[in-house]
Design a protein that fits this description.
It is a single chain. The protein is mostly helical. It is built from five helices and no strands. It has helices at about 1-20, 20-35, 45-70, 75-105, 105-140. Helix 3 packs antiparallel against helix 4. It starts with a helix and ends with a helix.
Length: about 140
């Protein structure tokens, strides 16, 4: 089973590299940006980069610290190292999410607005259909 999962992930990664090389390139640029803030231009201002890193780091360390305190996992030095590693990884993921949000906020807004309109339309149609069904049931009873 492990061999199958590894093979499937390898094939998916290879297909991703073949069909979407820009995603790999942008992600690689992002990880370089995590280390060297001024050496790579990602299209956002330096103050925004610092704010993104600060927010993601604060959220990551707070969330993991809260989780570790609630579960009582701060019982030895090894868990403190795990806390630090998990917080760093979570901070990187949050930075990546905030980075993509900062670059593609307009597209995210348009897609979210379109989804909201679709949900509202579906809700109205379901409401109208339910109202008609209730009216038919009421007429049949009389």
């Amino acid at each position: 089973m492990k061999k199958f999962i590894f093979t499937a992930l390898s094939i998916c990664f290879c297909l991703l590299m073949i069909f979407c090389p820009s995603i790999i390139n942008r992600t690689f640029d992002f990880f370089l940006w995590l280390v060297f803030i001024d050496n790579i231009d990602l299209g956002i201002p330096t103050w925004a980069e610092i704010v993104i890193k600060g927010i993601s780091c604060a959220l990551a360390f707070s969330a993991v610290g809260l989780l570790f305190n609630l579960t009582g996992w701060f019982n030895n030095n090894i868990m403190s190292v795990c806390y630090f590693i998990i917080s760093i990884l979570l901070g990187a993921v949050l930075s990546l999410a905030l980075y993509y949000f900062a670059n593609y906020w307009l597209a995210i807004f348009i897609v979210s607005l379109a989804l909201l309109v679709c949900v509202i339309i579906i809700w109205v149609l379901v409401y109208i259909r339910r109202k008609k069904r209730l009216r038919k049931e009421k007429e049949q009873k009389e």
